[in-house]
Amino acid sequence: MAASFQGFRSLIENSPDAISLIDPHGEVLYASPSTAKVFGYQPEELVGRNGWDLIHPEDREHSSRALQELLVRPAGPLQWHARVRRKDGTYSWVESTVSNLLVEPDVQAIVVNHRDINARRAAEVEKQQYAEELARSNSELEEFAYTVAHDLREPLRTITVFTQLLTRRTQMDGDSKEMAKLIVDGAVRMSTLVEDLLSFASTGMPGEPKSVDLQQALAQAMENLTLDIQASGARVTVDALPRVRCNEIHLVRLFQNLISNAVKYRREGPPEIHATAEQRGPEWVIRIHDNGLGIAEEHQARVFKPFIRLANRDVPGTGLGLAVCKKIVEGLGGAIWVESELGVGSTFCFTIMAEEEIRPHCTPRSRQKEMASAQTAAS
Ligand code: ADP
Question: In terms of domains, do 361 and 238 share one?
């Protein structure tokens, strides 16, 4: 017995952390030599003192609660953070790992391992300040983009309308007509970019969250895309989708961007698009599968960044659609990614927290029929 206690003692005396043995009331029975390095006190200055006196008043309650828990349920060490007063009067953030060895005949004490985590805390605080600063400057940038995009709408409309009027009202030769057409085409392209920028910038703006049926959000997105879906001959099938709590406009936009891409980036033949939902613990994984062009592996993460376009320039777009999707999904605490094979098709997947269980009476087949009739009604 004595030999094993000696082994235990040499282990704690050589540890870089300050180790102390305390009784259930917090009185220090033993303090290791490292205590001098970590807190500035010589071990003999601590023995006989009550350790609670050294803990910052704001940290006493949670430390005391943790210790009580350890006294009731001795199994396994507990760990918590608290500020401890050093000999020079300053406080150090300390991570305490505490084991209840009161019933161990060789120890009969509570063993506390104190590790100075000041540097770690400072890094965490700095990281948090940096994240807050980044979020603030991002939101300022978004507001700026929103204002600029908003204010550009009007002059662009003026350019388009008056160039068209000019073409109609004046005698123009072929070259001049061609130039006027180029002006109008350029202004229309710029309007699309402005609208997409507005959409991107306003995605982060707070909206009213409410209970949203994803099924309905998807039906609305398809309704908004009726012309494109019909022109391409796309067939969209949808399994039962859950309800979630979010901003409905954002969800419609998310589905609209994904389905519109599935239609735009198609191969020969009509697009086949299929939406599914799978519950994974507290969240849902929603998948939009298509049989389109596919995306090579090296581009699969890039396509979610603003202004990244892989397709040839004939396909209309601004490269902002998937960036908007990413912002929407991440704003709801989820993740978005794509699984794809070039020349075979893509599956865009996103996660979203569930609000309630999927409605049992809605079988995939009945839902597909509902969607089909929604589609017919829209056309
Ligand atoms: P946009 O469609 O305006 O170009 P997006 O951000 O929506 O912008 O998409 C970025 C790029 O990702 C597209 O230009 C296209 O190359 C690729 N992409 C998006 N969706 C698909 C898809 N379903 N199939 C194949 N490629 C896609």
Answer: yes
